[in-house]
Design brief:
Elements lengths: L1 H17 L6 H18 L2 H10 L6 H34 L4 H4 L2 H27 L16 H6 L6 H34 L4 H29 L8 H25 L2 H14 L9
Helix pairs in contact: 1-2, 1-10, 1-11, 2-4, 2-10, 4-6, 4-8, 4-9, 6-8, 8-9, 9-10
Length: 284
Amino acid sequence: MYLITVFGNLLIILAISSDSHLHTPMYFFLSNLSFVDICFTSTTIPKMLQNIWTLSKVITYEGCIIQVYFFMLFAGLDNFLLTVMAYDRFVAICHPLHYTVIMNPQLCAILVLVSWIISVLHSSLQTLMTLRLSFCTEVEIPHYYCELKLLIQLACSDNFLNDMVMFLAAALLGGGPFVGIFYSYSKIVSAIHRISSAQGKYKAFSTCASHLSVVSLFYFTGLGVYLSSAATRSAHSSAITSVMYTVVTPMLNPFIYSLRNKIIKRALKVFFRMASGKGSFVFS
């Protein structure tokens, strides 16, 4: 599953970069999302595979903190990029005549850059707040990776401030993008409803179907991990939900975007044809 996730998302990136027809805002954001998905799943799964192979479940304190930092970073980036993609679909359907003017390359680059900056600042804050906690010599984490909420609960020192910062950040950086996505799709549904022809409605909805599927997967699994109380859930069920969030969702994203997208399919065929050396060359 990890190899499928890495190579599937890598193929999406290569297909988009090799086809000039896909150098548009929508596919620019998609290639960034694929890169972040590779990084996101690589923060936890290689260590888990090492634990399975060596039959050792030990991770150093430094390694655990580094894992927390990059997990929070790429999880936040996933969240922000999905929000940016929802805004892109909103402009494309609700303001089609002004789409190329609004979604210009400068704005696209700024949106991605701002997503990185906010995610880095948030991840740095959470990591620094974790560093102030003191832990016992040997701590047993009932999970397969260093999950922030569990680490805070296992601390020997007072963790009230950490809990407050964590829940405040979840409300702002999790709830804010969700509200933005919900608002964008409420406007999209309203715009589609005003289209008279059934074919026009289907064409407009088909441009959002893949993104809506990925958003649903991301938020349903994410909410299952972070918004439910750890006291009422077993460690086993928490680990299963986290596998859905950290492994299954990034693995399914390339399939969702490629199987429902004829342009991506065509770009993948062209890429494989070029990679196999069957492309044509023209002398000038």
